[in-house]
Predict the 3D structure of the following.
Amino acid sequence: MTHQITGRPITEMKSILADAVELAGGQHAWSRKTGIPQSVVSLTLNDQREMSESIVNALGYVTQTVCIPMKGQNHA
């Protein structure tokens, strides 16, 4: 059986983080569970810090760099 892997844009990860924090019972609870400082979680949720790879990993995802053609370039 072949499994299709579906990626998510990094911009969607903030919403996934917010949901995970809520399900855990708040930022402090999620931070204790994952070992990621609550201050980092707060700054990330408030757009004062970029989504870190450690948060992405704690949410059960990995990051992977992909190349996307620029508009008007690389005609197929």
